[in-house]
Amino acid sequence: MPWPRYFALSLLLIFAVSAGNAQTPPDYHSQIEAFADRLASDIQKLPVPPKVLVVDFLNNLGNMNVLGQQVANDLAHALETRLPTGALVSRLQFRETLISAGLAPFDLREHDAITANAAQTGATLLLTGRILRFKNSNTLQIDIASLPSGQSTSSASIDLTLQPDALPLLTTPIDWPILPYALTHCEAAQKFRDVYAATGVTPPKCLKCEPPPYDEDARHARWEGSVVLYVTIDERGRTSVVSVAKSGPFHQDEYAIKGVEKWEMQPASLNGQPVKVCTAIQVNYHLGVNPNK
Hints:
CATH architecture of the largest domain: 3-Layer(aba) Sandwich
Largest sheet: 4 strands, mixed
Shape: elongated
Mean pLDDT: 83
Order of helices and strands: HHEHHHEEEHHEEHEEHEEEE
Strand content: 15-25%
CATH topology of the largest domain: Rossmann fold
Number of domains: 2
CATH superfamily of the largest domain: ABC-type transport auxiliary lipoprotein component
Helix content: 25-40%
Radius of gyration: 24 Å
Number of helices: 9
């Protein structure tokens, strides 16, 4: 979705407009303006004028989202009107830098990935943060770090008044091109449900996949449930477990890993050629189905 459309969408959802009445004064806008005043005042006290980059704000789970992107846009715009001309690094330029580097939104959880690519844009001061949703409030917490070291210099926070219609945007993924490398990035393969179709890849298939056995203690406790594993499937169809995405009790994780690593798979393919991918495999355990070998 183009950036101008995000801006229009945010205005529609964040600023309440009563039908038939004049527009209510935007509390959110006033809060962002006041926050920008505070930040700009501190930034202007620095001995050397910095080049400032505001990165999309994450949510409680550490994921990039439409609301965090728009709040970052609004804060960057407010700072731009308070700081000298050219003090703000283009957020669009930073996005293009990330895409060119083959990075995806979830890579921005990694501080090193942010700082290294932000420094490439010429930024010397980095603003990152999260929008934390609590029962009765929504708080923007930001961290200010110097570049290229990435060392934190200060932090700040502010409560935001958000309209109910805006809150779902806090869990709405941002628009981002699906990159080929996402096929081998376990988390990416799950974040982008259509990653195979988008990259023209035929997904892997089971050829010989015996149900992993029950752990004896789990079986005696009559536990039923599932274990989810992130599994890499190479060009020969061989499997290797990367990590446990959803754990089970007793020693079920160990049994699931040992079982899945014995599976024989038909590898994924691109243009008729086998390719390595990572995918989530859910191992279900039901009494009477999985033998206790």
